[in-house]
Design a protein that fits this description.
256 residues, alpha/beta, 2 domains, three-stranded mixed sheet, 10 helices, 6 strands, 12% strand, elongated
Length: 256
Amino acid sequence: MIIKNILTKIEIHPIFLILGLISIITGLFKEFLILFILIISHEIGHLLVAYYYNWPITNIKLYPFGGYINFNVLLNHSLKEELLIVLAGPAMQIILYSFIYLNNYFILPHTFNLISQYHYSLLIFNLLPIFPLDGSKIINILYNLFLPFKKAHLFMIYTSFISLIIILFLLPLIKINFSLYLLIIILIYKLLKEQKNHNYLFNRFILERYLYDFNYNKTKIIVGNKLKKMMLNKKHLFYLKHKYITEKSYLNKIFK
């Protein structure tokens, strides 16, 4: 039942299908199949921990560089749960590769070398701090530990742009192929779209704090009416006109 539910949520990006067709035509289907298996194992890691924490899944999108899972959760979610879900992807991929490594005598040397090459390439690539890769999610979680939600998201976007610029400068120094250009174009498009949604996400974050009750242990005091200083996983006290106002009371005044 769970597997059937997951399969109905999978969406394969057209470029992924195109690369699959090209691999068949050019006789590189084995390489494509290895990459596909690694990507699937990576996403299974995310899914297992997401199901453990009851994170509803909207859809699963498969791209040439990996997958992307959209969860139907509030922005005001647990950073700990999100971090474990993010790390579970690379962890599952490492577990699969470790199993193959320990049993590589069943595999031809050329095939094992391909598996190793794709494993490390996919692992390192997905940990780059570029949205929407896993690395950007880890960076965003770390930023949210110390910074307000709005600033943390903005810094994640800046970090992604800087990382992309560095990669673009390095392109002439490395051997590249057509698929890498496609990946970079997809990443740039996704990042620009996320930047465009920056203010929408912040407004959604504030609205959730108004609509729902969150029981956080840590409290941050905000002097003035600066909503942009509100943080994830913390409750707030606003200091206005020489008195303290609870977060809920302050937001009630705003939305009324």
